[in-house]
Amino acid sequence: MRERELVSGAGNPGPAVQPDQPANPANPANPGNPATPATPANETIVRGALGTLRGSDLHGVHAGLGRRSMKRRLLVLLAIMGPGLIVMVGDNDAGGITTYAQAGQAYGTSLLWLFPVLLVVLYVAQEMVARLGSVTGVGHGRLIRERFGRFWAAFSVFDLFLLNFLTLVTEFIGVDLAMSYFGVSPYVSVPVAAGVMVAAVGSGELYRWERFMYLLIAVSLLVFPLMALAPVRIGPVVHGTFVPSVAGGLGSTSMIFIIGIVGTTIAPWQLFFQQGNVIDKRIGTRFTNYERADTFIGAVITSVTAAAVLIAAAFAFAGTRLAGSTTTNGLGLARGFQHFLGPAAGAIFALVLMEAALIGAATVTVSTSYALGDLFGLANSLNTRFKEAKGFYATYVGLVVLAAALVLVPHLPLGILNLAVQVLAGILLPSALGFLVLLCNDSELLGPWVNTPWVNTIATLIVALLLQLSLVLTIVTIFPSANVKLLVMATSIPVLVATVAVAILERSRQGRWRAGRELLERRREWLTPQDVLLTRPPMSRGRKAVLGVLRVYLVVAMVLTAISFTRIAH
After folding, report:
1. What CA–CA distance (Å, rounded) separates 484 from 469?
2. pLDDT value at position 399?
3. SS3 for 74?
4. pLDDT digits (tens, 9 = 90+) for 205-218
């Protein structure tokens, strides 16, 4: 019970003490300072799927300080691992696996260059939320609420709720399609999958839930045998990875696929999930570097497995009647793999699709429960029993049951719905990342843990590129005959200008950053003051203008995207 009492979350409006740093009577002025030996040697600090850390294991673990053997570092990493790896692999969900295969089917290996770029995007974005969680001990939704107001928190969480629910529907569609390949009725497969998801959180222990996620991650590695069954040629793979191009040229349909790949590789729900999961697991600042490693490993695995699915589809369908198609769903893809590569390939793709649907559904639903708990101040932890967090679990179960029931409704436009969810995620991503960057530059929240200049420069480039993609899609929607290649070249100019401007501004404050022990010592001693989360900073005119423009952008982009999908459907 002691372990649960130490968990700090958005529903626990106590002092902003690190969740892995219990009060230290030896240093009442700085109760969360990990530099003081406050933790009993036999007390469990972090319990993960692959190991447990106790007080006796914490010697020398201060934001990466201290000399430790490689074996000891590995044991600590195994215990910490989970939030970063699970959120990354969870984003390769049923919609993602289907979108990657569709992209390979339609455009061959020409879109592989997106994945090295997206690896960087994934790591930079998720490292920021992991740092926010470990330093503040507060959920992402609550930070938006306290620093920007209830309106923007409700706006962000409502967008997330809508997107996550639609995503959850696509996950159960994935379950239906995957098991239909084996001849299982959706009236059996979908309810059973829903029951498995509910049972996975029923123990009230985070590490047990993590173990189930690790089992699914192991199944996801079947994409490599699938790729091995395809007649892969190294030349096109290397060219597609390092030479940006689009087979057939840029157009409105290819832009939708590019945005869809971006949206399915990194989505707004990931920000809420990882920050909440870091807090739930009690990963404080002393473990920040280990969580960064966890996040990087997850980003690499996610990008490589996604590329493997695209490569397998590109070579499996090349030169066949299915090449160039953009309408095949997951079941059609599995049957296509079976027809062209053999029964083993079809079965592997169906199993990967099933695994992707389950891990995607689980992480997306937990993300929604975390976000709603942040917004309404409810307890939201996988380390609690149902009676201790009724709102958290009721939201989880309600979403699962409702989405599963909706999937059983006949004649849903499955293919269009799947791609629409990925594109909607890409549309909403700039706003989510915008709030993230603002929070990570909030010195009252993070102190010496705020973004470094290079992180701000890369984050600016990422947000600018996402806005560029949305702008190009908007123009092509209004003017279908527009030259997409020329549009991309023209809109690249403001992207470069904005990035260079931020880089120059960030360079001017480079002197504030002193690498080495001084900065590490400041980080060790930093605690987010409690009053920062009790008083909202004044909103400047510039910030109000930016947020207003962002709201208009979201509305216009979603309306025009709906128009574009209506054209595709017809």
Report:
1. 11
2. 92
3. helix
4. 899 999 999 999 99
Residue 497 neighbours by CB distance under 10 Å: 11
The DSSP element (H or E) to which 52 belongs, if any, is strand 51-54
pLDDT digits (tens, 9 = 90+) for 44-89: 678 888 888 876 666 555 444 445 578 888 888 999 999 999 999 9
Structure tokens at 538: 């004044």
Token pair for 2: 């002691």
Residue 20: both structure tokens together: 């892995």
What does the alpha-carbon distance between residue 191 and residue 193 come to, in Å, rounded to a whole number? 5
Those residues with Cβ within 8 angstroms of residue 414's Cβ, 6 or more apart along the chain or in another chain: 173, 177, 329
Question: From the CA atom positions of the chain, what is the Rg in Å?
Answer: 23
The span from the CA of 75 to the CA of 73, in Å, is: 5
Q: Can you give the residue ranges of every domain in the chain?
A: 83-243+252-569
* Residue entry with tokens 């309600």: 398
Amino acid at 199: A
Cβ-Cβ contacts under 8 Å for 13 (sequence gap 6 or more): 377, 533
Instruction: Kindly tell me the sign of the dihedral angle through the C-alpha atoms of 292, 297, 300, 302.
Output: negative
83-243+252-569 folds as: Amino acid/polyamine transporter I (1.20.1740)
